[in-house]
Amino acid sequence: xxxxxxxxxxxxxxxxxxxxxxxxxxxxxxxxxxxxxxxxxxxxxxxxxxxxxxxxxxxxxxxxxxxxxxxxxxxxxxxxxxxxxxxxxxxxxxxxxxxxxxxxxxxxxxxxxxxxxxxxxxxxxxxxxxxxxxxxxxxxxxxxxxxxxxxxxxxxxxxxxxxxxxxxxxxxxxxxxxxxxxxxxxxxxxxxxxxxxxxxxxxxxxxxxxxxxxxxxxxxxxxxxxxxxxxxxxxxxxxxxxxxxxxxxxxxxxxxxxxxxxxxxxxxxxxx
Length: 272
Ligand SMILES: Nc1ncnc2c1ncn2[C@@H]1O[C@H](COP(=O)(O)OP(=O)(O)OP(=O)(O)O)[C@@H](O)[C@H]1O
Ligand SMILES: [Mg+2]
What we know:
By secondary structure, the protein is of the alpha/beta class. The chain has helices spanning about 5-25, 45-55, 90-100, 130-140, 145-160, 175-190, 205-220, 235-240, 260-270, and strands at about 30-45, 60-75, 80-85, 105-110, 115-120, 195-200, 225-230, 245-250, 250-255. The site of adenosine-5'-triphosphate has 12 residues, from strand 1, strand 2 and helix 3. Magnesium ion (MG) binds near residues 92 and 198.
């Protein structure tokens, strides 16, 4: 092919590609939208100060504030898998907690469209006096599932967690890895539309970790599931995500393809 024709065909391919991307963006609706979100934590000298600070009665014991998320904006479309990267204290967990509704920003707006399942603090919220099986039911009811829905999920959760006879023992007798197994098994059983993962894959032994990663791959193969993933392991981020957002002191400093995001984050780390 003559070179000008080649250039023309490359250009028209490029145009097709660009318009396909634009079509994709126009067609695939955003499911998570952060628009200039700022979250500030207030630090108090004592629990008493923290308590009164809640009602803004007095600020005598206030020793400082920390901007965990600073004017943070990003949009994630349905089916995307995005890694949040950043140093310790960069604001990653805070952003995930805002997505799950555990905490709220004081300014900016957040939209989350879809059923969120969170792998955040896997072991939190279990009642140690109840058995694993009873905790499955309790957790199911707490998130608004019907008895039939819980019954339908129970066998899957029990088999995924592989706790043997311990599933019918009080959870106070579980090791922390066993609690995490049940937490993970529950979170992935509810067929989430949005899956939020915060370092949760660091729990459990190696074979359980492999099983968790395989399950996440399986969930992600559903093109309608959106994943927001926090990890300090670049290999996992590359394996699971196509896009990366780098946070630095609460602010979005890079948003783009995962390889470039990891390179940007590595540079940032070496500079600091
Ligand atoms: N409940 C809280 N009260 C006060 N400060 C908080 C609270 N939660 C988080 N912070 C502060 O907000 C900042 C961001 O914390 P966050 O947990 O979001 O960071 P992170 O990026 O998840 O860090 P890591 O990689 O260590 O998990 C940190 O300085 C942290 O100390
Ligand atoms: Mg964190």
